[in-house]
Every structure is written in structure tokens, then in C-alpha cells.
Amino acid sequence: MHPMLNTAIKAARRAGTIINRASLDLEHLTIARKGPRDYVTEVDRASEEAIVEVLQTAYPDHAFLGEEFGQQGDENAEFQWIIDPLDGTTNFIHGLPIYAVSIALLHRGQVSQAVVYDPTRNELFTASRGSGTFLNDRRVRVTGRTRFHDALLGAHWAGSAGPDGGAARFRDMAQGCSGVRRLGSTVLDLANVAAGRLDGFCGVGLKPWDVAAGSLLVLEAGGLISDFEGEQGWLKSGDVLAGSPKIFTQMMGSLQPRPAA
């Protein structure tokens, strides 16, 4: 296992311990609102601080981009860690056990290491570029399902995607598959695509920390990922399609063009 991946695993598990401890006493959480349906707790901040401490101790010259504390260090650094300390905060504060820690390492702008840790199930998803995707040390691959009407998809269509196309853009996709699930944690959606539990995922308006680690999990598990134009601009645009190759192609084909302004 790559030493940088080992360090990221250590950081993710430390954050998971903080999250699990806090989950036992949710009534005493301090919760703040960052925006509509966007919450942050002291657990998010403590988790990110713990992750950065582990990574920064091992790699003091690396840069960091985290959901709670933003950019630390040179954003054009050779190595940059992208961190979501608790993806699924709304689930967490309601006691719904669907959330995860996400850590990705960019090397010269390309995701090279990825860790997604689900502390409630003790499930650890890991990937190193060129070395496959693993769930608790067992190699996993995307599903082999080929027929779109049998596919189960994950989705993040917040607010029906707003003015950039609305729900209508995804209607054919949603109606053509066997079902769409919105779990409330994009990093787990992508991890579940990599593990073959979901056949595909479609997300709108996501942030780099939502998709960086999951993207490598999907790719190393034999899947595909792109933006809605089939290009690799998803890390900046936040518009993401991911899935097994045959389902991904059909998802792309079912996506409606963006309405003219």
C-alpha cells in the first residue's frame, strides 16, 4: 500500500472516532447554518482539524482544501489534499447513519490517492491510481449490469438543479431506470458505485471535496466519470455522471440538453 494512502487511512480513522463519539450524544451538538439546507457542527470542524493534523505532520509541504477551513497553502502546489470531514452532516444531526469521511490527494492536479471511510459500518474504501479499488482490503469492481431499465442510480439533484436545467433535464434518466436513490452523502454514492451497489450516479452543483476521492474509487473499480458534456471538467463544474461503462453510456444518452437561455 502506498505510504501516502496509509497516512490518509490513519487520518480518516481518527476522524471517524471523533464522529462516532459525537453520534452518541447528538442532543448536545452545536449546529450552525451555512446556507439553505447546509449545516455545520463542531464535529465537522474537529474532524477536519484532526485530519489536517495527521496529514500535515507527515507532509508539511503539502497544501490542503477542506470544506470547513478552505484553502491552506499554495493551491498550485504539487501535492494537495482535498478533505470532506463529514459528508452527510444533515443525516448525522438527525441520527441517520449515512455519512462518511472523504480524503483525496491530488498530484499535479490529478487524483492519485483516495479514502472514503464510513464510521457507522466501519467500511473503508481505498484506491491508489493504477492499483484498483478496495473495500476493507477486498478488491471491488463496478456492476456488470447492462440494461438501463434494471439500473439503480444515486442522485444529488438539489432544488431540482435550479435554473441550469431543472428536474426536466433528468426526467428521462429517472424514468428509464429501475430507481433513483438520494442518500444524502455524495462520497458514499460514488463509493457504492465503485463497489457495485449502485449502477450509476448523477450529481449537480457539487464541490471538489464531494467528488475528488469518489472519482478515483469509481475509475479504479472499472467505471467511468465525466461532466454532462462527457468531458473531464467535473471537478470544477460540479456536474458529475459516474457509473459502470454500459450504464454510464446510457445515462449520458438519456441526459436532456440544457434549455436555451
TrEMBL record:
The keyword Membrane does not apply. Keywords: Hydrolase, Magnesium, Metal-binding. GO terms for molecular function: inositol monophosphate 1-phosphatase activity; metal ion binding. Its EC number is 3.1.3.25. It catalyses: a myo-inositol phosphate + H2O = myo-inositol + phosphate. This is Inositol-1-monophosphatase. It comes from the Bacteria. Pfam families: Inositol_P. CDD domains: IMPase (cd01639). Its cofactor is Mg(2+). InterPro entries: IMPase, Inositol_monoP_metal-BS, Inositol_monophosphatase-like, Inositol_monophosphatase_CS, Inositol_monophosphatase_SuhB. Mg(2+) binds at residues 67, 84, 86-87, 210. The keyword Magnesium applies. Belongs to the inositol monophosphatase superfamily. GO terms for biological process: inositol metabolic process; phosphatidylinositol phosphate biosynthetic process; signal transduction.
